[in-house]
Amino acid sequence: GHVETDTPSALVIGDPDFHGWASQLPGALQEAVYVARRLRASTYDTKALFEGDATKPSVLEAMPNSNILHFATHGSPDGIYLSGESEQEGTLSMAEVQELDLTKARLVVLSECDSFRGQLCTDGVIGI
């Protein structure tokens, strides 16, 4: 069976491969490599998904087990852009995020454009 450990875990996403449907983000890979290195140095069990490895299935599988999530990528008010052959294949939507069990997450860093441009309503901001 699975044994729970006290070792904190992290997921770092950097510079997904957009295959031309979005421009690659200058500095995103360097940022993600640096963040992953610092987390590992701080004894975090760190999973790094860079470039073509940063696919939606890989990210969705790793997110629920992570205490820290760091995304260095493009985004929109409706989602986070990950590696994929098309925008539809590569976009992690707010609805998909809401279906995940993220109770282990303690910190989420969205180092991307437009993630803050959600719709303001009485319950707060709706969006990524």
Q: What does this protein look like?
A:
The structure is a single chain. This protein has 128 residues and is an alpha/beta fold. The protein is 23% helix and 28% strand. The chain has a 4-stranded parallel beta sheet with strand order 2-1-3-7, sandwiched between helices. It has a 3-stranded antiparallel beta sheet with strand order 4-5-6. Strands 8-9 form a two-stranded antiparallel ribbon. Helix 1 (28-41) links the parallel strand 1 and strand 2 (45-50). Mean pLDDT is 86; it is low at 114-118 and 120-128.
Which structural traits does this protein have?
128 residues; alpha/beta; 4-stranded parallel sheet; globular; disordered C terminus
In short:
The chain is built from four helices and nine strands. It is of the alpha/beta class.
Taken as a percent bin, the fraction of beta residues is 25-35%
Query: What fraction, in percent, of the residue positions are helical?
Result: 10-25%
Spell the H/E element sequence.
EHEHEEEHEHEEE
Q: In DSSP terms, counting alpha (H) and pi (I) runs of 4 or more, how many helices?
A: 4
Q: Whole-number average pLDDT? A: 86
